[in-house]
Structures are given as C-alpha cells and as structure tokens.
Amino acid sequence: MTPGDGPAAYPDRAMTKTSPPSPPSPPRTPQVPLSRAARRNLLLLADGLRTPAEYTGPLLGSSARPWLRRVPYVLAFAAVAALLPVTIQVLNDVYGMTNGVAALLATAQTAPLLLAVTRPLEAWWIVFAAALIGAVALMRAPGTPEESWPWTPPLIVGYLLLMVALGVRERHRTLVAVWLMTGLAGLVFELISSERTDGTPVVLFLVSGAVLLLTGALREQREAQRRLTAQESISEAERGRRTLLEERARIARELHDMVAHHMSVITVQADSAPYRIEGLPEAAREEFAAIAAGARESLGEMRRLLTVLRSDGTDGELAPQPGLSRLQQLVEATVRAGVPAELSLAVDPAVVPQAVDLSAYRITQEALANVVRHAPGAVTRVSVSSIGEDLVVLVVNGPADSPRSPLESTGTGHGLVGMRERVRLTGGTLDTGPLPDGGFRVAARLPMATPATPEDAE
Fold it and tell me: What residue spans carry the region label Disordered (predicted)?
C-alpha cells in the first residue's frame, strides 16, 4: 500500500454510503378516459335492453308445486281483465278519446302483461312504446290539462306489475336500463310540457325503481339458494364417491396381505423344492427357480400397488387380519358398549376362505357399530351359518327398550357402502332394511369355495 492510498486519497469512496434498494413501486392502474367508460356503460345498458334472459320458461315454472306454477298465469289474466276495461273507460270518459283509439291504446298497454309471464322484456318494449304513443296522443286529447299526464293511473298500475315480472327474471343491467329509460321518458315529457305534468313521471320513476330493487334482490336470494342447494348436492355426491374409493382402497390393502402371504408361501416352496425333493432333473430345477423369481416379482409389484393405495400419513397395519374366529370378542366388546348382543356361530372358521372370512367379520363389525351409534340398548342377534356353498351372515336388532343418546357420535363414514363393496368382492348379495317393529336387519350371503378333499377326488 502506497502512502497515497487509503481514504484520504479517495474521499469520494470514504464518504459515500451504500443505500438499500428502494422497494418496487406498485404497478399503476391504467387510466381509462371518462368518455370511453361512459360509452362502454351505455353499450352494456343497450345490450341489456335487447338481450333477454336465457331462460324463457314461465315465471315460477321450476316450482315443484303445480298450483304455484299456475299463479303467474292467473295473476296476468286477472290484471288484464281488470285493467283493460278500466283503461278504455278512463281514456274515453276522462281524456275524451274516441272509442276506437281508446280501445287500441288500452289493449297495447295491458295485453302484453300476458306475454310477461314468459318474456317480460319483450312485453316491456310493447308497453313502453304504447305508453309513449299514449302520452303523445293525450297531449292532443280534448281532456282537461289537470288530468294525470303523461302516464294514466291504469298505466302506472300495469307498468308496476310489469316491473315485478322483469325483476324476478332479468339481469341487473337490464333492470337498470329499464329504470333509466323510464326516467328518461318522464324527463323528456317534463321538458316538452312542464306546465301539464303533475309529478307522475317522478312517482313512476321512484316506485318502479323500488319495485325493481326489491324483486331483483329476491331473485338474487333465490338464485343463491339454488346454487347452494346444487353445491350441497355435488358435495354430497363427492363425499359418497370419496367414501366408496376409500373403502375400496381399504379392502384392497387387506386383500394385499392375503395375496402376499400366499405369494410368499409359493416363493418359499419353489426355492426349497430342489432341496426337499431328491433326484430332480435340471429342467425341473430351472422351472422351480423361474416360479420363485416370478412370485418374488409379483410380490414386489403388489407392494408398490399398496404404496399407491395407502393414503398419505397412513401407516401399515401390523396386526393380523381378523376373521370369524374373533366374532365372540367383537360381540363381547359390543355388550360392554351397552348393547345386549348374542352370537350364534354354526360354521367352522377353518373351512371358510380367507377373503370370505375377513368380509364376514367386517360386515358384522360395521353392523354392530351401526347399532351402537343409532340404536343403543337394542337387543341384537348375530348369526353366522352355511347354506349349501354360501356363508350367511345375519345381524338383527330390535327397537331400543328406552330412548338413549348414542354412545358413539363418530364413525368411519363407510357404513352400508363398505358392506356392499365387500359383498360385491365375493360375488354375494346384501339385504338391508328396517323391520316392522322398528328394528333393522342386515343379511349378507357370501359364496365360499369348498376345498377339495381326497374323497371328492376319488
């Protein structure tokens, strides 16, 4: 280091401090010109006026009650039957119109209420156009200037009924556009003849807006309830499907233990055959070696399959699989839980195939668990017998002697789903259902293959 080196030689380096990097500035929202935003909103409102709702069925057409589906038609006919003659009389007597013109205007202003049951937006266009024509005609009518103008009282009543039909059917933008068109028409007539208007445009504008707001809110609430119901149905179906898949995976894991045991026996027998049997030819030794290798490979594939079937966080079961030999312990545990149960086992568990043995135990276990959860204290009888080549499992419980709260509020959630899957696995049948006295019955018939005996071979 030379004498000239150091902070004194480079004062800019000695005095300069490194400042931390400034945080990035948030992205700027692009500014939309006011004229462009107004034009876009006007286009949306215009689209709402010319595009009706996709559903063109009648109002309340999706109701499950037939009489409720007829209510809109009855109300529409009643409104037309009441307003049509009143409108004709008012236009004729109060405003001095001729009978033909009054009848034509009255029909155009009231008859579209029938169309409003299925197509309220199209009905509004007809009524709105007829109202504008009627307002122009009333300006030249010989009636007194003190009468209601530009909207007659019958027209206001029919228009509000039409707003109800619009509110329960059309979209928000359509309702806003209809409301603004109503106010704009009243404003135009107010500017044309301000000395004749008596406030009816303002009244119709405010009241129609309130009706549209109320009916639109009711429609949104109904749509939200419908979507919630549909979502609950989908969730219930998904829960059922997930339960079915979980039960199938559990059964597959249990079957893996059985098959793995048999494959292990095959491997040991094939490997030890050359040492147990003397004088085997070389071809037979190679065949036994191939059998052992194939068994080991199949066993490895099954273990990989079990890894796929096992849920995340589920440890392997180390206890041996239960069977009919443990039914007595299961019934005794049920008795300790407060359910008086008895067992009748009329079959030797040793002659029952392992898959059928396990399925019979699991079906009995789930049936007794359901008794504990749903009918605590009910007398229960468990019967296992053989009819021909079938194993019959019967679990019957009567009604509880006295009302009691369930001793177990949670379960596996599999229930009858697991029973059906196990019966389907063995090719059997399952019959479940309530009894006339208030109890419940579970009957499973499981085919079992009878082992071949020397007598049968002879």
Answer: 1-33
